[in-house]
Amino acid sequence: MAYGKIYIETFGCSLNLSDTEFLAGELLKKGFTISNFEEADIIIVNTCAVKEPTERKVLNYLRRIDKLGKAKIIAGCLPKINLDAVKKAIPSFNLIITPSAYPRISEVIELVSKGVKGLIVDDNIQPPLFRGFQVKRKIGIIPIAYGCLSECSYCCVRLARGRLRSYSLNQVIEYASNLVSKGCVELWLTAQDTAAYGFDINTDLSQLITAVNMIPGDFKVRVGMMNPKNAYRILPSLVEAFSGDKIYKFIHIPVQSGDNEILEKMNRGYTVEVFKEIIDKFREKHSNITVSTDIIVGFPGESERQFENSLKLVEVVQPDIVNISRYGDRPGAYSINLPGKLKGSIIKKRSRILTELVHSVSLERNSKWLNWTGEVTVVEEAPRNGYIARNYAYKPIFLKTSSVKIGEKHLIRVVDYKPGYLIGEMLE
């Protein structure tokens, strides 16, 4: 049987989205067709395992497709982290391919077409950056490094991606330039920890941001998640690099806890005071910068006082966005062996309390943008009857209109706000 039509289902982060674009691009180069689910001969599932709820969602999806009369290739991080769970959820899988082996995807398809089953394709190398990418949207995703330098006690992704291997400045600039030439109006620099970029090749993230900002073209750049530990190492130059006119005034700096004892148990390598200093320095230079952070609720041994320290941190720092995760054991993570596991009911209660506080803080932060007037770029369709645009601070602004196109720039006024977004009206 010829396998010409392929569907790719993607779970997880922007790095996974980039991997999917790479897989699709490689397959298109080889003459395959990227199709919808119903018409596909082969389903590729690009999995994620960073959090327990995500893993459950992936495994449920695998169970749903197990009995289908289609070939199935399982990709992504989950097989590296919990292979037994994958095999149990989808016994009918044909092949498993790990992220480092993606350049061999066409070879894997050929093996499937020959009836090979139960094979795991795994290369412990850094995938090449210059690959057959495709751009479905006006957003280009650029992986700037593979792996990371940290050993956070709750993390299992290091098992799938390994240690830091950065792509060179020239590679990233050429890749970014190609995306801009293809019509991208927004570039995402992504990695497990963008702040670690270049430490293995005698450069750093601030130099990369400055170089990308100099690429000719009309586009904006979103810098992905930065571990405070590594951002602090280059803080002065990093803050200055964000002055570039093409760089969104947006930072994602996950603090994970507002308590130093918990941060030490997490093996994060910084203190609450360091986190605050990073935010202060960015806001001193870029007053309206959007600050996003992450907090894990219910880490083993977290006392009521330590949880309250996280609440206090949110009240003091006033981040625009807080991504809240309930702690859960991950396969291979050091934290599995830590004492003091909390009851699920306690974790849920704390998550609910923090969510209410974050809702209030986000609403207050967004209220400051009421009546703001300025230029925005339309970046995607909204879920219902409109479009999403971004301003210089990467604020999502809902425009209830059908008369704009993705990539266009428009002058707007903010007329209302919600905790998660602004609402604008056209002034043209």
Description:
It is globular, with a radius of gyration of 22 Å. It folds into three domains: 5-121, Methylthiotransferase, N-terminal domain (Rossmann fold); 139-367, pyruvate-formate lyase- activating enzyme (Alpha-Beta Horseshoe); 373-426, OB fold (Dihydrolipoamide Acetyltransferase, E2P) (Beta Barrel), CATH 2.40.50. The longest helix is centred in the last third of the chain and has 24 residues, at 344-367. It has helices spanning 14-29, 52-65, 78-81, 83-89, 105-113, 157-161, 169-181, 205-213, 228-233, 235-241, 260-266, 272-285, 304-317, 344-367; strands at 5-10, 33-34, 42-47, 71-76, 95-97, 119-121, 139-143, 145-146, 165-166, 186-190, 220-223, 250-252, 290-297, 321-326, 373-381, 387-390, 396-399, 409-417, 422-426. It contains 14 helices and 19 strands. By secondary structure, it is of the alpha/beta class. Helices cover 35% and strands 21% of the residues. α8 (205-213) runs parallel beside α10, α10 packs parallel to α12 (272-285) and α13 (304-317) packs parallel to α14. The strands form five sheets. Strands 2-1-3-4-5-6 form a six-stranded parallel sheet, sandwiched between helices.
